[in-house]
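step: validate -> pass
step: tokenize input -> pass
step: predict -> running
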Amino acid sequence: MAASAGHLRPGRYLALFALIVIVLYALVFLTGNHKPTPKLGIDLQGGTRVTLTARTPDGGQPTRESLNQARQIIERRVNGIGVSGTEVLLDGNNVVITVPGEQGDQAKNLGKTAKLGFRKVVSSATQPVVPPQPTNPPPATGTPTSGAPTAGAPTSGAPTGTQKPTATSSAPPTAGGGGGAAPAPQQNTTPAAPSSSTPPPPASTPAPAPSDGSVDAQTAQEIQAAKALRQNPQLIGADGQPNQELVSKAMAALTCAPNAKDPLEGNDDPKLPLVACGDNDTYKYLLEPEFLPGTEIADSTSGYDQQRGQWVVNLSFKSAGTKTWADFTSKNTGQQAAFVLDTHVVSAPNIQVAILDGNTQITGKFSQTDAKNLSDILKYGSLPLSFASSDATTVSATLGLASLEAGLIAGGIGLLVVFIYCLFYYRLLGVLTILSLALSGALVFAVLVLLGRWIGYTLDLAGIAGLIIAIGITADSFVIYFERLKDEIREGRTFRSAVPRGWVRARRTILASDAVSFLAAAILYVIAVGDVQGFAFTLGMSTVLDLVVVYLVTHPLVAMVSTSKNAFLSNPRHLGLGAVQQVGSQRKKSTTVGRANVKEA
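step: predict -> pass
step: emit ->
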């Protein structure tokens, strides 16, 4: 800013501010969805709050590091499925996902994908329509049962051996991962009834009852019983062949049905074999211990293969995972590799050839949605912790809107009192204050709309509180400036000469005051979470915009008034400066008389 009114060109500053406003509102109305409204938080528009409770296989306390890592992965998963305006926060051992609006159904599925791993398929069997009865078990057989194709035989939707050299072919997955084609199992077993005379051997390391209350005693017993049957180390013999009796008992005890609760979900031991459901709950699988964790996946994408005329999933691994995958595919060409997510097989592709570079293509009768769902599971499905079934709560906006209405009424009353005070105390300068506050509000509104589009910022009650407090900071800048003008006029200067001198001195105080407010807001934003961050963000943003308004609007308008030839506008009495002008005139007269007396003496 110039040091004198003669050097200041108020029109240029006002034109610059007008240009900023025009550009901002052009972006508001001509980009995005063209709706001039900011994104609202869950407390203002309603939404869904999903709570995921972390748990460990032994029931112990999860580490803070693993919780933070899980939160970050879930946050990336949220961004990957395109759920905007979502917050992912830690609350003790819980991960709380807050989704505004009507996107909650997508968020409810986030807690269902917790731990991903790769296991070799030893055998599989079809899931019977009617569960087998203990008194009349179906006979075990090594031939394919109804609906189970023989190994390597082309089936409807199952690709044949015409794949690319670096591809695996897959039956469509479940859990959002595929269509209706069945995999080609290597060996088939039919579930048999458990025998009362030969109880299954227990697992070597049954899960102890949790000590922190994360699950109750009954659930802990269910986990131990499921492990004893479905993760028995003797399910697979030393020769790699399944123990048919134990496998039949484990499969008979396993219920594969939509939304069926699996006690082993998140509690399975990757070092032990596993009997699991898969393929739209049509098949039951016997799987070897995990040979590759899902954390070794580098990336997964879906796309349309023009040559094949079908949707495919492209999978790549990290360096260590690439080596492990290459070794496995080299030794198990023609076999199946199961992608296991929380004890559920989401896909079990046949290995066509050895894949040495890790770049794998999964094919099958995928729709676009199927391919994307499987890709998302592979990309975002592996977490360092397992989570209990998600607790999803629908939040109504009624309470938030009532609070917003009460807050706006209170803020409006406070703003009206400020206007009345400014008009009474500063008169025409008070009008400039009101005009500056209105322009500041217009600037803040445009920025909020654009931030909602560009970075997904959502405005909530805490953010509105920050905006209301920022009004006081903006008004305080005007008061500092106008009081400094009074000091200059009180010293005997005219209004015109007081403006540049008063501005030079006032702007230092304004900068210092706003800098303190901005630093406080920035520190609060860094160390806080949730709603407090929203409060700090709007407070800091409004503080910065306050400087823009004071520099480009308030001071230029005051300078224009001080140089105006209109006697009404430049009259100090109409600006609330009449009293201090009289004091300044008296001081100036007394100084002149004192000098005259000194000269006469």
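step: describe -> The chain has three domains: 10-38+396-595, 47-109, 114-188+264-387.
step: cleanup -> pass
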